[in-house]
Each structure stands twice: as structure tokens, then as C-alpha cells.
Amino acid sequence: MKWLMVLLLASPAAAQERADVPYSWARHKPGTFLKTRMTSSGTAIVEYHRTLKEITDKEAIFDLVTVSIPTKERKASVQKLFLIQPGGENIAEETLKLKDREYKCRVLKANYEQGGVKMDSKFWTAEGVDFPLKTLEVGTGAERWMNFESGALLVSLDEELVVAGRKLKCAKYAGTVKGEQSGTLAFWLCPEVPGGMVRSETELGAPDAKSKMKMVIETIEFEVKK
Predict the structure, then answer these.
(1) What is the DSSP track for 206-217?
(2) Domain 2-223 has CATH 2.40.360
(3) Higher pLDDT pick, 16 / 101
(4) Which residues of 97-126 are buried (b: 16+ CB within 10 A; e: fewer)?
(5) Considering the entire predicted model, what is its pTM?
(6) Quick one: DSSP state of residue 56?
(7) Average per-residue pLDDT in the chain?
(8) What is the mean pLDDT of residues 113-138?
(9) Is 88 helix (H, G, I), strand (E, B) or coil?
């Protein structure tokens, strides 16, 4: 479970978590609240209640309460999310196609650490598009589960999802994960939701596994402090 949570926090979310994008935590005030629920193969197993505590030059700091659905056990902790600085380091230019339109992109990179995993992040940005057209995360560490590669492409800018009882327009991504556990992922970003991530679907398993585990994390409640 630990490696999966690092993956979902750091890739693809952290690649987007830049202070210059409209869904960044850096744009919100302390007290902003986000509740998400994780399900495994259709069964709810845990909720995460995050309250923004502080924004520094490099991190968003949260009071986190983890609630086990089966046992009702609650565990409080402090969580930190790395904030990639505006712009990142421009390393290349590349043209990408979304549907029938081509976009000239800057390829940006950043290196950081999330949950003990060293992350090499690249993301492709284009003028006039609030969301990266492509993301790539490579994780490395001392343990096997810390080594993985996750990449995703923007496939739609106008997907509609019902989030915490509200119908919102979202950007949808699809991609793959390679590592000790490999498979597919999809996720949806929306500027109205703190941190942007409103839903993720990850289907993973060992390379030789006949079946894979499906994990879904979705936003079920949020409140933005102004």
C-alpha cells in the first residue's frame, strides 16, 4: 500500500503541483479542506481528510487524518507535498497532438523527493493550456517498490464528472505505470478542487499476474477558504 500512495501523491499529481497553475495548493489559504476516499476492487477501505496548514516556498503542509473504513480507526499526522517552482527548468521543445490540434510544448523538468522516493519529473506545457499535455515521473530508491516509471497523456479538456455533488469540467489523462507493480492509470484534474486531482483509477499487478488490483481514489468533499 505504501508504494501505491507515494505513486499517487508524486505521480502524476506532483508533476502538476506547480505554484503557477490554477489548481495548485499554493493558491489556497490555510483551512482549505479536502476529503478523498480510496476503494479497492469496489470496496471502500480508507478515507483521507486533509486540511491545509501552511504554504512555504517549497511545500504544502497538511494536517492529515487517515480513517480506516472497516475499523473506523483514525490516525492523525502531518503530510508535506513538494511544490515544483513556476516554470521549472526548460530542457527541450517538442510538438504534441491533442485530438486534431498540434501544440508546441516546452519540456520542463524538476527533481525532488516525496515519501522517501527520489523523483525525476518532466512535464510538457503549451501556451493557452492550463494543464500539462504530458507528464513523466521516474522514481528511485533503496527498496524495490521505490523504483518505477509513470507517464500520462492529456486526452480531453472537457470531461464532466460529478465531484462532491457538483458537476465539474475536468481534464482527463491516461497512461501507464512500470515497476514492481505495472499497469494502467487514468486521472482527472479540475481547477475548482484544491490540488486539482478529483479522481484517479489505477489498475496494477505483478508483471506475470493473471489479474490486477484496481484502486480508485475520488474526492468526496472539499471546502475552499478565501
Answers:
(1) -TT-SS-EEEEE
(2) yes
(3) 101
(4) ebeeeebebbbbbbebebbebebebbbbbb
(5) 0.86
(6) -
(7) 85
(8) 85
(9) coil
